[in-house]
Automatic annotation (TrEMBL):
<dbReference type="Pfam" id="PF03083">
    <property type="entry name" value="MtN3_slv"/>
</dbReference>
<comment type="similarity">
    <text>Belongs to the SWEET sugar transporter family.</text>
</comment>
<keyword id="KW-1133">Transmembrane helix</keyword>
<feature type="transmembrane region" description="Helical">
    <location>
        <begin position="58"/>
        <end position="76"/>
    </location>
</feature>
<dbReference type="InterPro" id="IPR047664">
    <property type="entry name" value="SWEET"/>
</dbReference>
<keyword id="KW-0812">Transmembrane</keyword>
<dbReference type="GO" id="GO:0005886">
    <property type="term" value="C:plasma membrane"/>
</dbReference>
<keyword id="KW-1003">Cell membrane</keyword>
<keyword id="KW-0813">Transport</keyword>
<keyword id="KW-0762">Sugar transport</keyword>
<keyword id="KW-0677">Repeat</keyword>
<keyword id="KW-0472">Membrane</keyword>
<dbReference type="GO" id="GO:0051119">
    <property type="term" value="F:sugar transmembrane transporter activity"/>
</dbReference>
<dbReference type="InterPro" id="IPR004316">
    <property type="entry name" value="SWEET_rpt"/>
</dbReference>
<feature type="transmembrane region" description="Helical">
    <location>
        <begin position="82"/>
        <end position="100"/>
    </location>
</feature>
<feature type="transmembrane region" description="Helical">
    <location>
        <begin position="26"/>
        <end position="46"/>
    </location>
</feature>
<protein>
    <recommendedName>
        <fullName>Sugar transporter SWEET1</fullName>
    </recommendedName>
</protein>
Amino acid sequence: AQERSSTTKLSLSISPDSMLATSLRFAGPLMFTVMQLASVKTAYGIHKAKSTGNLSPLPFTSLVVNCFVWTLYGILRKDLTVLVPNAYGIVMGLIGVVTYQNYSQ
């Protein structure tokens, strides 16, 4: 009888509400990761043109600093959905910073 109760509890925990909550929990970090690809596109444009033109380095440095702070928070909270996308953002931001530095005048 006790085994049956555990099975019932398990099946009740897989509800549309919990599936939605789980989906949303991963949707934000996924969208943030995709959004960070914009900085790589900009860095690639700088590399291709061999010039920064009139672009500011601020978006790249802001991305690094912002993601660094959130990565620390993710480490403290032991929350991979915060830590992983922001650690990835540090790398993407650093690619932009290095590319900007290489082609700035």
